[in-house]
Amino acid sequence: MLSSGTYPIGTPGQAWGDAERATWLARQVRRRSYVDDVASAIDRLRDRFDVAPYGQLDYPPEQFELFAVRSRNWDHALPIVLVTGGVHGYETSGVHGALRFLERHAKDYAGRVNLLAAPCVSPWAYERIHRWNPLALDPNRSFREDSPAPESAALLRLVAPLRDNVLVHVDLHETTDSDESEFRPALAARDGVPFEPGEIPDGFYVVGDSENPQTEFQQALIAAVAKVTHIAPADAKGEIIGSTVVAPGVINYPLKRLGLCAGITNAPYTTTTEVYPDSPRATPDQCNAAQAAAVCAAIDFALARASR
Fold first, then answer.
1. Radius of gyration of the chain (CA)
2. Which helix (H) or strand (E) holds 50?
3. What is the pLDDT of residues 255-307, one digit of tens each?
4. At what angle do helices 92-100 and 284-306 cross, to 10 degrees?
5. Can you tell me the distance from the alpha carbon of 213 to that of 239, in angstroms, rounded to the nearest whole number?
6. Residue of 292, 303, 293 whose CA lies nearest to 268
7. Which of 43, 78, 131, 223 has its CA at 20 to 30 Å from residue 180's CA atom?
8. d(CA 255, CA 208)
9. CA distance 164 to 89
């Protein structure tokens, strides 16, 4: 077992204080552009959607405008589909998979659902290719009342008026090799606990809600994505990332209790997608396509059930 002392910041067994967080922040380097990669792509959607800011992140000397994309002819008689990406900014296909869905597939659902998308919830982390925000907080453990993470708080405000009317919420994520090499060791060091090595699953999988598992729904996403890229197998314990596999490529978490993004509405159909971009069997384009396919499958399943 590795200890948190193997991480270059902090003292083993002691949670970080302000000095350690400052040291960590000073090590973060901007590696790509939110404006060039994401905001410009969102801007190109303005001829088909209503695009508007839903918040601003102030991380001096930087500021980031957060954008939501909505169906232009919003019809209160139609169900709402929420798509979120980039809650963890380093998970690239979460952002670009959401954009791909909007660019290529959203037209297929015009007049059938109201679409609301937040393609990049964490732009600072997108630029640094990181999991946390500058406060060393994980936005995807911070979706709760009085959230300490500005990214999470802004999305909660956006969704609050709609949370009881959402039919489907698909939150797009990745599981990467850096989870094991950087982010989980950093988490252990930050919290002053031992780091216990895990296993990165090779392939796509989904995380349902243990309080509302909807296994058939999750399996429909797996079946659709299997046509695009490979599905992660269970490990020798019958698990994926420490959770029991309840169907091929499907595990469950208590979404709301953990403060996860997929739990921010009362939608009957919710899922967190996970692709593995570091696999030798998957390309970045496949990862983006898998995310878009999952969104389409989620909407198709929910609409088919609603029409029964």
1. 19
2. strand 49-59
3. 999 999 999 999 999 999 999 999 999 999 999 999 999 999 999 999 999 87
4. 60
5. 16
6. 303
7. 223
8. 8
9. 27
Separation CA 102–CA 207 (nearest Å): 22
CA distance 99 to 41: 7
Q: Write the pLDDT tens digit of every residue in 89-114.
A: 999 999 999 999 999 999 999 999 99
Does the pLDDT value for residue 84 go beyond 50? yes
Kind of pairing between the strands at 62-71 and 114-118: antiparallel
Domains of the chain: 4-306 (3.40.630.10)
Q: Scan for tokens 């509302």, then name that residue.
A: 212
Burial group, residue 300, by CB count within 10 angstroms (0-12, 13-18, 19+) = middle
The verdict on whether omega for the bond into residue 254 sits within 30 degrees of 0, i.e. cis, is no
Task: Name the nearest CA neighbour of 104 among 44, 51, 172, 38.
Answer: 44
Residue 296, CA distances (Å) to 170, 195, 226 in order:
10, 37, 13
The neighbour count for residue 251, using CB atoms within 10 Å, is: 25
The number of beta carbons lying within 10 Å of the beta carbon of residue 277 is 18
Question: Which residues are registered as beta bridge partners of 56?
Answer: 65
Nearest to 250 by CA among 269, 273, 224: 273
Partner residues linked to 114 by β-bridges: 80
